[in-house]
Amino acid sequence: MKIRYMKKERKKILQVRSNIRFLEYVFFGSFFLGILLTNVSGTDRLKEFGIFNTYYLEQLQYVKVQTADLFSYIFRCRVSVFILLVAAGVTRFWKQLYLLFTIWSGGAFGFLCVSGIVNLGPKAILLTIGSLLPQYLFYVPQVVLLFVTTEKIWERRISYITERHSHQVAGRVGAFILVILLLLFGMLSETFLNPYLLRKILLLF
Fold first, then answer.
1. What is the pLDDT of residue 126?
2. Is 7 strand, coil or helix?
3. Model pLDDT, residue 80
4. Cβ-contact 141, 182 below 8 angstroms
5. pTM passes above 0.90
6. Helices 136-158 and 2-41 sit at what angle, rounded to 10 degrees?
7. How far is residue 113's CA from residue 108's CA, in Å, rounded to a whole number?
8. Half-sphere exposure of 65 toward its Cβ, with a 13 Å CA cutoff?
9. How far apart are CA 55 and CA 68, in angstroms?
10. What are phi and psi of 159, to 5 degrees?
11. Is 122 helix (H, G, I), strand (E, B) or coil?
């Protein structure tokens, strides 16, 4: 009985890894598609807006960042996305909705890269990477962990197992707390560390 249970758990782990790998492929596919569509639609308009707009970069470099206002803005944006993902997780179409979120994220990243290169040239690659650090070191694991937790909850609904129930519930609660902490650390680092990092990178230009 124990061997059968271990085999079943191993199969679940392999399935989760396979699903995460599939989302990785979708993300990078959407990333290249975003680059392609942005170039096809015309790059002249990209000079008028985006974080790589010259005016925006000058403001970032010389104007003092109001951390309270910045955190308030980041909090609204990130928590809204988090709530949408949690809400998506309680529907039967949660996998499709997570897939759409992954496609949108990859396409947006592709747009960001093209916008940077159009405005600043190849050196914008460094600034593009800097614009994502260090907050996405927390955001990406947060979304992945939320996906894995949601998948396990739905597996639980489909095949209910009475034994080890309390341990599994404790595991889900612990995972959700970790998701919240990753989200919080991401928002704090995006508020206090990312502007500092971007200013240091801008000094290299």
1. 87
2. helix
3. 96
4. yes
5. no
6. 130
7. 9
8. 20
9. 22
10. -125, 95
11. coil
